[in-house]
Amino acid sequence: MSENDAKAAPAPEGAEVNCLCMGMGPKVTAMLQCKSESARQHFRNSRVEFLKAIRTLIDERIEYLSRTQKRGTTVTVE
Fold first, then answer.
1. Of 14, 38, 68, 74, which one's alpha carbon is 20 to 30 angstroms from that of 31?
2. Which residues touch 27 (CB under 8 Å, ≥6 apart)?
3. Ramachandran category for residue 5: left, alpha or beta (phi over 0 → left; psi -120 to 50 → alpha)
4. Cα–Cα distance measured from residue 13 to residue 74, given in angstroms and rounded to the nearest whole number
5. In this predicted model, which residue has the larger pLDDT, 23 or 60?
6. Domain locations along the chain
7. Torsion of Cα atoms, 62 then 68 then 69 then 73, to 10°
8. DSSP assignment of the chain, as one string?
């Protein structure tokens, strides 16, 4: 087994894992490489919806930063 193969191998059950995914990376990758066309379509749609949500957050932030702020106050003179 080469050094690269050792790094890519999943951690044995009960072993301490020091990565962000906590050893779930290979399992999630296998799940996302599904053979079902229906599931693949759902994943594709979810990516599009996620990007739309990010776009909405960006648009709201741009609107917030671009709005003109009132300067001073209006006083009615009789």
1. 14
2. 10
3. alpha
4. 70
5. 60
6. 34-67
7. -160
8. --HHHHHHSPPPTT----STTTT-HHHHHHHHS-S-HHHHHHHHHHHHHHHHHHHHHHHHHHHHHHSPPP-S------
Cβ atoms 25, 19 nearer than 8 A: yes
The per-residue b/e assignment along 16-28, b for 16 or more CB within 10 angstroms, e otherwise, is eeeeeeeeeeeee
Q: Give residue 23's region: left, alpha or beta (phi > 0; psi -120 to 50).
A: left
Q: Is the pTM of this model over 0.85?
A: no
